[in-house]
Amino acid sequence: MKINKVVIATLISAVASSAFAADDFNTVVEASHSNRKETSLKLNQSFWGVDASLERVFRDGLGKELNIEVGYPAEIKPGFSITPQVEFTHPDGYVKDSVKPFDLGNTWKFGIQTDLEITSRWNVMFRYRFETAKHGGFTDYDFGGFKDSSGDIRQNTHRLELGTGYEIVDDLELSVKYIGRIYRFDEKNSDNEIKGHNGDWEFKAAYSIGDFTPYAQYTIKNSDHLKSDMGRLNLANENEFKVGLSYSF
């Protein structure tokens, strides 16, 4: 019995040591702040071939949302990988702005991402993601016949991302990404619906200093183009400038 206990303890120790080896376990912590008064704190973990992240977002000093994401990268060949992903977003209470003036609900996001290293300095990526959420009723909003609606609102979004990055000199990478969205709001027990689309251009510069990577990012946010039986409406969005810092260990 004593020998068996020693053997079992040795095996557990060996498995634990292997599982948490430096090559299998990586952590990245990141903090950022933008001109939209949003602050983000993010923890990324890579272990046993799985990528997971936990992000807390604050706006105007108050909690905005919590994001949890899990992905499983599969290397098809050296320099080319495909990653299925799932993300869950839990908002904090009531949010009212020009695009979503209602009681926000939880959002599930299911995506697939491909990454390709064309050269040691040049990479490209593509991601498709389907997002679905059920929100509370609209309030004080008269576009599309949704004014003072008490029914649940279902939002479905198709999101496409296409980006590329290039390391122009050692440790300095410049990247650009296009993010397009096509979405629809449907009211429960009603024919009311709003369809919309928008697209953003994201420009980023990141410089690695050992385990630290400071970065600056500027996003051109195009207008939301909305359409319903009541007509059409374009809603302008504020461009975003963000600075951040990540640390890996």
Automatic annotation (TrEMBL):
Name the UniProt record assigns to this protein: Outer membrane protein beta-barrel domain-containing protein
Lineage of origin: Bacteria, Pseudomonadati, Pseudomonadota, Gammaproteobacteria, Vibrionales
Organism listed in the record: Photobacterium marinum
Regions that span the bilayer: none
Record keywords: Signal
Signal peptide range: 1-21
Keyword Signal recorded: yes
